[in-house]
Amino acid sequence: MRALAARSRRGQALVETALGSMVFVTILLFGIYFAEVGALTLKVQEAANFALWEATGHVMHNPQAGVFQRSNAEALASSEASGRYQDFDGRASHASGAMTFQLAIARATRVNVDCEPTRPAGSPVDILGTRPQDATTGETGALDAAMATQSDGISCNASTTLRAERLGNFMEPEFFKVSHRLASDQFRVCAAGRASGGRCTRRFFMLLDDWGLSSLAEGRECPLSTNTGAPCANVDYYGWVQRVYRENGAGGNAGTALMAGVGATGGVNEDQFFMSFRGAESNYEQSIGASHAGNQTVWETTPFVAENLSPTYRNDGRRNKWLGGVPH
Question: Do 103 and 240 have their domain in common?
């Protein structure tokens, strides 16, 4: 009887060890798998966000052509992100040619990054903020006419297809069979939201560009061309301001009409555009010669407080006023 009892205990221990090993291995495998799915999902989200911020590094506008929020930035950013994240790394592009990426258990297809120059479908137009057409008066439409915006911004999503591999055949029999089949099924991972019908419909969105000028060339000085009104070296800034000036009706012809009314002849071209933009390198001053305002030879073009401006200019009551007190 004692021998039979010992053999029974050994048999029970063996069965418990076998069952415990199956449970332990199952938990271990799926623990590894879920960890890999989580890590790969974060990389998919990273790829979509990389495309958003990559787009900000491309040329957004061409003021000479009156084009702002250029739509080609989205395509360039999407291509760069897809190349960098095809192997889920992102630090550099490794064009291995492989269509899948295999970890210990999880297998994923290449990350596909898709960007569009529009706001997400169904989103309100208010998310675009104040656009040129919104800031334009109904009388002239000057700002809208001077700025052709090609895109709303950039909206991106990224996706990949995941499935479990290398689970082995030990999970085939009985109740493990269902778990194995479900784990091996492919499923779509989206950077934004969940897949619907195998498609990623949600997107990340970001506004691009602004109404300002950003490059080194667009920050250059623009000295006054007193006689000819010719463009300065800062052609982008000059051209943009000139277009707004023209679209607003330019200088008009009131002076010419007055001269004609009194029988006077001669005069100047009232529509001639002149522009001066001086910075710190010129002490914010424009030389205008000795024929203006009681032979005043210098005109300070930028009314704001700066250390290198004269005390008289800083303390003449123009502080905290719009453009130094310009009527508006």
Answer: no
Instruction: Tell me, yes or no, whether 212 lies in a domain.
Output: no
The Cα–Cα gap between 73 and 14 comes to 65
In a domain, 112, yes or no: yes
Please list the pLDDT of the chain residue by residue as tens digits (328 residues): 555 555 556 667 777 777 777 777 777 777 788 888 888 888 899 999 999 988 888 877 777 777 777 778 888 888 888 888 887 777 765 555 567 777 778 788 888 899 888 887 777 777 776 667 666 655 555 666 667 777 788 889 999 988 887 765 555 555 555 555 555 678 899 988 888 888 888 888 888 876 666 677 777 888 888 767 678 888 888 887 888 788 777 777 777 777 777 777 666 677 788 888 888 788 888 887 766 556 667 777 665 555 555 555 555 555 555 444 544 4
86 contacts 110 by C-beta, under 8 angstroms: yes
pTM: 0.61
188 and 70 inside one domain: yes
Shared domain for 161 and 195, answered yes or no, is yes
The dihedral of CA 25, 27, 30, 35: what is its sign? negative
Query: How many structural domains is the chain composed of?
Result: 2
CA–CA separation, 51 and 154 (whole Å): 9
Question: Could you tell me if 101 and 23 lie in one domain?
Answer: yes
What are the backbone angles phi and psi of residue 131, rounded to the nearest 5°? -95, 165
* Same domain as 182, residue 153: yes
The set of residues, in sequence order, having a beta carbon less than 8 Å from that of 112 and lying 6+ positions away, is: 82, 158, 159, 160
Considering the domain architecture, whether residues 175 and 44 belong to the same structural domain is answered as yes
Instruction: Give one DSSP letter per residue of 121-145, joined into a string.
Output: TT--GGGG-S-TTTSS-TTT-HHHH
Domain that holds residue 78: 14-206
